Amino acid sequence: MRPDPADWRDSRAILIGVSAYQDRRFPDIPAAANSVKQLRAVLTDPRLCGWPADRVTVMTDPSDSRAVATRIRRLAQETSGVLLLYYVGHGTLTPGGELCLSLADTDAEAPDLTGVEYARVRSAFRDSPARVKAAIVDCCYSGRAIETLADQAAVVADHTDIRGVYTLTASDLAAHVPPPEEQAVACTSFTGELVDLIRTGIPGQGDPLTLGTLYLELRHRLRARGLPDPNQRGTDTAHSLAFTRNAAALHPAPAEPTTPAEPTTDTDTDTDTDTDTDTDTEYAPVERASLPRRVLDSRYRHLWLRVLIAAGVGVLVGILLWSWRLALIAAIISAIADTIYRARTLSTVPAWRRISAVERRTEGRLMKLERAGYRTLHARAIPGSDAQIDHLVVGPTGVYAVDSEKWDKRLLVRDRPHDELFHGPLNQRHRLDKARWKAAQAGELISKGLGRQITVKPSLAIYGPAIPREVLNVRDVDVLDGGRVRKWITGCDRSLTDADIESIYDAAERELPPRYLED
Questions:
Q1: Which of 109, 145, 360, 387 is 20 to 30 Å from the Cα of 432, by its Cα?
Q2: Sheet order of strands, 116-117 included
Q3: pLDDT tens, 74-111?
Q4: Which tens digits make up the pLDDT trace of 169-182?
């Protein structure tokens, strides 16, 4: 069982994160600071790990290896319950092949003298009276920690009153971190998955979750993302330590909705069919025009033109061949041909990109906003990165970055506590963070080009599964059905004038180049 809160008074968690380095040969790791912050958050969350805040010691960008090692030793000697040490930063090897934890002032040429050799951690663990000692190491070469601690397991077990030593490491060689442009809002890959696992839990497992159970699921998730395999080593019963409550057991996934998904989500072949998908107008009311007004509306001119072309071809074939069946077939073929021609020629997203099918569907919907004073850009690149904004919309209600995605309709979409979004068993946290980062980058570039602050709202337009509510706001990103994108935009409050729209659009067109050359 997990210790009661009262029992934590004899335990200590030591979290060390180094994100900024004086030696330029060590690149800064902003994600390390986020990792320490997020891990502390789940440790002290009473619904999860339940550590009291005063039993968690955080060292952010520490320097002076002697002072750090001395503090670790002192805290370890004062701990008789659970001793947890976490480190995230650069890991190096000493000339003797020993793992060394880099600090803010570590010299890359003398890590054994200016960093914390893992032998010092091993010594502190050996001399600590803690019943359970656990180390989580997120750095390059962290697998060496397995060797230095676990190989001494018998000695530790013989000379201290403990139940075991447990070590969890990110990688034997190079640990993985997100690209530099994403690190401002992201954790390291290993810690990010660990924190996410604690927050979301493991469906089908008991409550609480042990270190050993967490490791198996963590390894599965990291492998699924193509990231380095973690490692673990434990002695005695340390792997059975109840580390956290199982959030999946506390907050079971909601049952699938009994109402069917919007039919146009998967069957829409015409860019105008979203007029039938938005049956609820509370979020963004639209005017219900009468049939005569729809007939005369210029927005539907291409549909009437298509009908006339099909009818003309059908009549011509019927007269020439005296066959109503052939006339009907010819009319249908001509209507299909006109649909394909317009989809290919009116889209600014190249037709040869198969992945852009949903982008073209969203683009078709957004084109209708132009008559309401909106301007749109499609498939725009963010300079200095491989990222792309599928659709940038500038209009009376603001500036929007819309990413279009096709998801498997068989898997349920649901949001969870702690700002989490799941598509089936897959957490979409990284996808949301990416969308938020792209919108922030676009806002910075447009603001710089315009000379004043512009905010770009991030969103995901999803095609495939049903979205449980009209709009989900998760991690500051709006998630909605692709068929509702137009009503979502027009339903917001007006905030820009015509002059604002034109100036912002011109700046966006300059600062965000096309992702693909025009054919």
A1: 360
A2: 91-93, 99-101, 116-117
A3: 999 999 999 999 999 988 877 777 788 999 999 888 88
A4: 886 555 556 566 66
Over range 196-224, report the average pLDDT.
Answer: 86
Is the distance from CB of 144 to CB of 215 less than 8 angstroms? Answer: no
- Cβ atoms 198, 247 nearer than 8 A: yes
Pairwise CA distance, residues 338 & 61, whole Å = 63
d(CA 387, CA 378): 13
SS (H, E, C) 466-512: CCCCCEEEECCEEEEEHHHHHHHHHCCCCCCCHHHHHHHHHHHHHHC
Structure tokens given for 506: 């011109």
The whole-angstrom separation of Cα 458 and Cα 38 is 23
- For residue 237, give Cα distances in angstroms to 123, 158, 452, 478, 489: 21, 15, 60, 45, 56
pLDDT digits (tens, 9 = 90+) for 282-295: 333 333 444 554 45
Nearest to 201 by CA among 91, 90, 42, 83: 42
Tokens representing residue 311 in the block: 């009818």
Amino acid at the residue 350? P
The pLDDT assigned to 440 comes to 92
- Per DSSP, the three-state class of 100 is strand
Contact 332, 311 (CB under 8 A): no
**Is 231:143 a contact under the CB 8 Å cutoff?**
yes
Three-state SS for 74? Answer: helix
Predicted model pTM = 0.48
**Left, alpha or beta for 160 (phi > 0: left; psi -120 to 50: alpha)?**
beta
Cβ(88)–Cβ(102) under 8 Å?
A: no
DSSP 394: E
Specify the residue for token string 């004086």.
22
**Single-letter amino acid code for the residue at 482:** G
Q: What tokens were used for 216?
A: 């198996």
Nearest to 456 by CA among 497, 401, 505, 493: 401
Phi, then psi, of 280 in degrees rounded to 5: -105, 120
- Residue 241 CA to residue 418 CA, distance in Å, equals 24
The neighbour count for residue 430, using CB atoms within 10 Å, is 16
